[in-house]
Amino acid sequence: MVKREVLSSEGSMMLVKVELAEGFVGDIDQHPEEQLSFIEKGQVEFEVDGEKRILNVGDTQYIPSSVQHRVKVIEECVILDMFTPVRKDLLEG
Questions:
Q1: Which residue numbers delimit the Cupin type-2 domain (predicted)?
Q2: Mapping DSSP to helix (H, G, I), strand (E, B) and coil, where does residue 89 land?
């Protein structure tokens, strides 16, 4: 399960709340926007450019522009994702 909610989209920045179910494994993603993810709840494994890292509540993960990444949910989680510039594809969907 993936639930996304755009919390703010102002100027060149966007904040998105993402809720993911335990066991979820995302497809490899890549986009031109920079991304900063904050773990509000749960535990996840981020793989960024082939490097894996376990994140817990309060941890952050920076994802540079156009770098391949994916997430694997270890424990049901809520992630706050900040993007710059705005991801227009998330506003459309």
A1: 18-82
A2: helix
User: Could you tell me whether strands 51-55 and 60-63 are parallel, antiparallel, or unpaired per DSSP bridges?
Assistant: unpaired
pLDDT tens per residue across span 5-54: 999 999 999 999 999 999 999 999 999 999 999 999 999 999 999 999 99
Contacts of 66 (CB under 8 A, 6+ apart): 30, 31, 32
Which tokens hold the place of 64? 């540079």
Instruction: Write b or e for each residue in 66-86: b if 16 or more Cβ atoms lie within 10 A of its Cβ, otherwise e.
Output: eeebebbbbebbebbbbbeeb
- Cα 81 to its chain centre, rounded Å, is 5
Distance CA 86, CA 12 (A): 6
Cβ pair 34, 63 in contact under 8 A = yes
Q: For the chain, list the domains and their CATH numbers.
A: 2-92 (2.60.120.10)
- Residues forming a β-bridge with 78: 19, 41
